[in-house]
Design a protein that fits this description.
The complex is a heterodimer of chains A (about 375) and B (about 240). With about 375 residues, chain A is α+β, with helices and mostly antiparallel strands. Chain A has 12 helices and 14 strands. Chain A has 2 domains: about 180 residues, no CATH class; about 180 residues, no CATH class. In chain A, the strands form 3 sheets. In chain A, strands 1, 5, 6, 7, 8, 9, 10, 11, 13 and 14 form a 10-stranded mixed β-sheet that branches. Chain A has a two-stranded antiparallel sheet with strand order 2-3. In chain A, strands 4-12 form a two-stranded antiparallel ribbon. The longest helix of chain A is centred in the last third of the chain and has 42 residues. Chain A is elongated. Helix content of chain B is about 30%, strand content about 30%. In chain B, helix 4 crosses helix 6. Classes of the chains: A alpha+beta (about 375), B alpha/beta (about 240).
Chain lengths: ~375, ~240
């Protein structure tokens, strides 16, 4: 027999108090695991959806006289033919980037197009992929599927007074309006959008692009991609568009802060419950502890008894709390219909949950253990 | 050299000021190995305080306790605990067995903090010594009779083979036949050469003792050495 057997024996005898302490610790661990898992799942989900916020890397020709901003361009240079281009070499190099880091590559060609004596900006790209990457695109009608179809930005459509299905003559060729891009609030409202090969054919510009949009798979892939592309594309300028990443990060941080604040509150309350219950248990056992001291137990032996009990209950709370917290995180998207959340369980949560249980259980039991250790052996002789 | 010796022991509860209560007044005592001593006195006379000081459990306000020549209260708390384990065995009032441990585990209690392999063997030997077999040793106290619980308490007191046994009203909660068995065991322990100090208020418990110390108001009122005659119900009395 050793101190552990005595501690376990006492736990078996005082099941009510052991249960109460375990409930307190379990609640704290479950809340922590639930919040942490939800935060990680949300972060993962938002990362997964990062592509829907549009491109996060922009590749442009060097020393371009085009003033570009993401989502549109002031293309005076393009109109005047003074623009430098990217070529197929750059496009292929970008397409060769690791597919687990890059989910989208959109080459874009810009060209001034004349319609009914007015000049508009034409944009040629892979429209199907562009619609996939730009979640804010709402198309009335459909995307162009034939070589003689175009998609009009809302302002162009309003200016020309055209509706879906009507004919339009662009740069001397006849097209049909397959659809209208509903208002984006960006330069896209002023564009005539065509599939890339159609615009290339129309302008005679083959294998050259004004810019290439790249969509990273995850927010943490952006910086490594920026470094790699800068290195591998010395003839181009690579710019990271951080607003979507910042948005993701800020959303994550706000969620994390909120979750952690609630968890901290629960942990404090649980710690108080554990400390109070332990202290009551020590008070109830004064005579028994006095006997231990009388038969030769040192203060550290008595403190060890209390801390062994706390550690044992912490271990149980860790197991149950982690299971409950993980189950809660898994069930949350099922219960909250409409919440788009990919459940992710990081093995590190096991480690953190276990650490929390032990740190909380042992810390909250330090004072009761100290009080127990300070009890006099003469209590064994008193009538309590 | 006496095995147990206290010199000028006083104990004041609540500080030395006017609010303090003096439980013991300048008590001097020597107890030899093999002596069976009863400490008697009315409630509140100071006998439990004396036992706690003799048992190295409560530091006196004044005076010293020497056990086997060691000045106990000059030692650190840690060393005092070691000394209690090595020199002292306790039988508490109400026996105070730990209810969630078996009889065997109760006896092993003083050994639980030691790093030695023969804990169980030693505990079983102590139980056998007091007449508890291994089958009963596996039972918790609630499953034992009062007499058996008393024997387990004595086994716990002797498992470390201490030279001094302290007993605080050891038969107070037992019927007279069971109490007799416990007193006989304490007598045997004294006959083996241990000093046995028993606090009691019951004169019937003292018929086998070698010496009676009567305390009143914190002072030794009488310290009587008895000449014990085997198989004779009466003993002649010599008062120091």
């Amino acid at each position: 027999m050793n101190l552990r057997d005595i501690a376990f024996g006492n736990l078996r005898r005082r099941k009510g108090k052991a249960f109460l302490i375990t409930i307190g610790l379990t609640t704290a661990v479950a809340a922590f695991v639930l919040v942490l898992t939800l935060i990680l799942s949300l972060r993962h989900t938002m990362d997964e959806q990062l592509s829907s916020y549009g491109a996060n890397l922009l590749v442009t020709p060097p020393a371009s006289d085009v003033t570009l901003s993401y989502g549109g361009a002031t293309i005076e240079g393009a109109a005047s033919g003074q623009v430098a281009y990217l070529g197929d070499t750059e496009l292929q190099a970008i397409r060769a980037l690791p597919p687990d880091q890059v989910v989208g590559v959109l080459p874009i060609l810009l060209a001034p197009l004349e319609v009914e004596g007015r000049r508009f900006l034409g944009l040629g790209t892979e429209l199907a992929q562009a619609e996939e990457r730009k979640a804010w695109w709402k198309v009335e009608g459909r995307l162009p599927q034939k070589d003689n179809e175009v998609l009009l930005g809302l302002n162009v459509r309003n200016e020309l007074g055209l509706e879906t299905g009507e004919s339009i003559r662009v740069a001397g060729q006849d097209f049909v309006v397959s659809g209208v891009l509903w208002e984006t609030g960006d330069q896209e409202d002023n564009l005539i959008l065509l599939d890339l090969p159609v615009l290339q054919e129309l302008t005679g510009i083959q294998g050259r692009y004004h810019l290439i949009e790249v969509t990273a798979a995850r927010s943490d892939a952006v910086e490594p991609l920026l470094a790699q592309m800068t290195r591998e594309l010395p003839q181009a300028e690579v710019t990271a568009l951080r607003h979507s990443i910042e948005f993701t990060n800020q959303s994550n941080k706000a969620l994390a802060d909120f979750g952690l604040a609630i968890t901290a509150l629960i942990v404090i309350v649980a710690g108080f419950v554990v400390a109070t219950t332990m202290l009551m248990a020590v008070k109830e056992r004064q005579k028994e502890i006095g006997i231990f001291r009388a038969v030769g137990y040192k203060q550290r032996h008595v403190a060890s008894l209390v801390l062994i009990e706390a550690a044992a209950l912490s271990a149980v709370a860790a197991g149950v709390g982690i299971a409950l917290g993980a189950a809660g995180a898994w069930a949350t998207p099922q219960l909250a219909r409409g919440l788009s959340l990919v459940f992710v369980f990081d093995p590190l949560v096991l480690v953190y949950g276990t650490l929390l249980a032990f740190i909380l259980g042992l810390t909250a039991s330090l004072y009761p253990a100290w009080r127990a250790a300070g009890l006099e052996p003469s209590l064994a002789l008193k009538r309590i | 050299m006496a095995l147990l010796e206290i010199n000028g022991i006083s104990k004041v509860y609540g500080g030395q000021g006017p609010g303090g209560v003096t439980a013991l007044h300048a008590v001097d005592l020597c107890i030899e190995a093999g002596e069976y001593v009863a400490v008697m006195g009315p409630s509140g006379s100071g006998k439990t305080t004396l036992l706690s000081i003799l048992g190295a459990m409560s530091t006196p306000s004044v005076g010293s306790l020497m056990i086997d020549g060691i000045d106990v209260y000059s030692l650190s708390q840690e060393r005092q605990a070691d000394l209690r384990r090595e020199y002292l065995g306790f039988v508490f009032q109400g026996l105070e067995l730990v209810p969630y441990l078996t009889a065997l585990e109760n006896v092993m209690l003083p050994l639980a903090i030691l790093k030695e392999k023969r804990k169980q063997e030693r505990a079983l030997e102590a139980l056998e010594r007091v007449g508890i077999d291994e089958r009963k040793a596996r039972r918790v106290p609630a499953e034992l009779s009062g007499g058996e619980q008393g024997r387990v308490a004595i086994a716990r007191a002797i498992v470390n083979d201490p030279p001094i046994i302290m007993a605080d009203e050891p038969v107070g909660s037992l019927d007279s036949a069971t109490g007799r068995q416990i007193l006989d065991l304490l007598r045997e322990l004294a006959d083996e050469g241990r000093a046995v100090v028993m606090v009691t208020h019951n004169p019937e418990s003292t018929q086998d003792v070698d010496r009676i110390i009567r305390i009143r108001d914190g002072r030794v009122e009488e310290d009587a050495h008895l000449l014990r005659v085997e198989a004779h119900p009466m003993a002649s009395l010599h008062t120091r």
